[in-house]
TrEMBL record:
UniProt keyword NAD present: no
Gene3D superfamilies to which the protein is assigned, alphabetical: Phosphatidylinositol (PI) phosphodiesterase
InterPro entries: GP_PDE_dom, PLC-like_Pdiesterase_TIM-brl
Superkingdom of origin organism: Eukaryota
Coiled coil: none
Organism name: Mycena belliarum
Record bears the keyword Iron: no
GO biological process terms on file: lipid metabolic process
Name of protein: PLC-like phosphodiesterase
């Protein structure tokens, strides 16, 4: 067994041995957790096999991604509830005279997998990411297809995962239900060789509670941004599973959010940390979360001056669109980083698993 494999297996065993239900703090992995957001959307078209390939090549510790569920109940890897024209193009109907065609502009929950699979979601570089590699004719992948591709490049099952359910409690008709998401995703997770290295995250805390009820061993991460903490009139935010933050201890919003995340047995608090006064991550939030035995892994960090603050506050990981840059910077700070995967092997697996089918 190589040194690389031995160290990563040790880290994985430490993570797997933790009982999330008991709220014991997770053991820190040997490598700082650099997460490739949507695979690493600054470098390649988001949430696609090519994005995950470059996340592996660039040495991400964790692949972060999003899940939707199609009309026929298949878990797919995509961020948006709706197929937006800025990211995807129609290529033709799934069958002759399909009344649902065109599919751009429709919700994934109202499309079958066959319909989703016709879309070209790799040809359009996003304006905010001028160095993003495009891969024309790239199809949206199922979660199982992503697992299969990564397993080809990672036969020792050492990569870690952070998988988000895209559910909107404010507009429940736009996605499948919490029950459908949780049951469908858990079935895939439980059958995967990666089952012990998956974190389940969501802004909709109802899904985190439901996943814990189904399987207390699943590591959950409570996503939060400023807008998801806001009351609706006199009612609590629909994103927080009915919890009223005013009922939790803390002198600041960040401290109360940490207390609420602990209340739902989240192992990780994942708060916004972008360049905005509405950013949620603060030193007092990090301190409170650590006092309660949780880890803190903010998103989406694309500026090094923000990363510098986060490291100084003691965060446990960083979710970024540029895992190659953050990994290099983390290494410069004297922190351990995960090894990179062999480029030739990863690209060979990418070709073998046909991202455009």
């Amino acid at each position: 067994m190589t040194t690389r494999m031995a160290l990563l297996l040790l880290a994985s065993s430490l993570l797997a041995s933790v009982s999330a239900a008991s709220q014991e703090p997770l053991a820190r992995p040997f490598a700082f957790d650099v997460q490739g957001h949507r695979g690493g959307r600054g470098n390649a078209i988001e949430n696609t096999l090519p994005a995950f390939a470059w996340g592996l090549i660039d040495g991400a510790t964790t692949l972060e991604l999003d899940n939707g569920v199609t009309k026929d109940g298949v878990v797919v890897v995509w961020h948006d509830e709706e197929i937006v024209a800025a990211k995807c193009q129609d290529t033709g109907p799934a069958f002759l005279a399909d009344p649902t065609f065109p599919y751009v502009g429709k919700f994934i929950a109202n499309l079958t997998l066959a319909q989703v699979k016709t879309l070209d979601c790799g040809s359009q570089r996003q304006d905010n990411f001028p160095f993003q590699l495009t891969y024309p004719a790239t199809r949206i992948s199922t979660m199982q297809e992503v697992f299969d591709f990564v397993e080809c490049a990672d036969p020792d099952h050492l990569i870690r995962w952070n998988i988000e359910s895209k559910i909107d409690p404010a507009f429940p008709d736009r996605t499948r239900s919490v029950e459908t998401f949780v049951n469908s995703q858990h079935a895939l997770f439980a059958a995967s060789p990666y089952r012990h290295s998956i974190t389940y995250q969501s802004f909709d805390w109802r899904s985190l509670i439901a996943m814990k009820d189904l399987d207390p061993s699943v590591v959950t991460s409570a996503l939060v941004e400023y807008d998801t903490t806001l009351m609706v009139g006199d009612a609590p935010s629909p994103w927080l599973a009915g919890l009223n933050l005013q009922n939790f201890s803390g002198s600041s919003l960040g401290e109360r959010v940490a207390s609420a995340a602990h209340h739902i047995n989240a192992t990780i608090l994942s708060s916004s940390a972008y360049d905005s006064p509405r950013s949620m991550t603060t030193r007092d939030m990090v301190d409170r979360a650590h006092q309660l035995g949780m880890l803190v892994k903010p998103w989406t960090v694309n500026r090094l001056e923000i990363a510098e603050d986060l490291i100084r506050w003691g965060v446990d990981g960083i979710i970024t669109d540029y895992p190659n840059v953050i990994r290099r910077w983390v290494q410069q700070q004297g922190l351990q980083v995960a090894p990179k995967y062999p480029k030739r092997r990863v690209l060979s697996c990418l070709e073998r698993h046909s991202y455009n089918r």
